[in-house]
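Everyone, carefully examine this protein record:
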Amino acid sequence: MSTSSTVLFDLDGTLADTALDLCHTMNVLLERHGRARIPDTLVRPMVGAGARKIMERGFEATGAPVEEAFLDQVFEEFLEYYGNHIADHTVLFPGVRVQLEALTARGVRLGVCTNKPEHLTHQLLQTLAIADFFPVVIGGDTLAVRKPDPLHLTEAVARLGGTLEGAVMVGDSAPDINAARAASIPSVCVTFGYTDIPAADLGADHLIDHYDRLPEALKSARPDHF
C-alpha cells in the first residue's frame, strides 16, 4: 500500500441512498406551491443533478415551467426543509462501512467530492456516522467550481496530502466520471446510483454492482497503490 493511496467518493447515489428524502422534500415543496405530488417511482430518475435541478424537473413534470427567480426561492426552501429531514429514510449502500473501515485500516486517504452543499454534506456524514472516515470534504459550494470541473477533485487530493498518481474517484454519474477523466484520475462507477445515462455508458474505467467489488476495482485501477 502506497502512502499516497487516495480514494475520493461522491455522496448521493454513491455512498448513501438519499433518493427518498430528496424526493419527499421535492413533493412537499410542489404541494406548498400548488402542484401535484410525483410518485417516488417517477421521481427517482430526477435525482442526481442537485436540488435546484430536482425542483426544476418537478415543476416541469407537474405543469408549466417556472421563472429562474422563483427557482432560486424554492431552492432555498428546499435546503431548509431537507436540512431538517436529511436522513429520515437515507441509508448507506450495502458494504460501504465495511470498505471504509478496511481502507482506513490500510492507511488509504479518503475524501468526499460532492456537488451537495458543504454544510449539508457534513450534516449527513455525521448523521450516518461516517464523518470520521473523511478528513477532507469538498462540497458544491466549497470552491468557485464544482464537478465536472477537475479542480473539485485535484483540490481534494491536495488537501489530503495525496498524489494524483495514487488517486481513484468513485461515483455514480456523469459529473463524477467526467471530472475524474479531466483530472487524469481513474474512475469507478457504481451501477446502483442516480444517473439518467446508463452507468455502462458513462465511460468509467471500472463498474461495480456492490461494494464487495471495490477492492478489486481499486487494485485494477492503481496496481502500484492498492
Remarks:
- The mean pLDDT is 94.
- The radius of gyration is 17 Å.
- The longest strand covers residues 109-113.
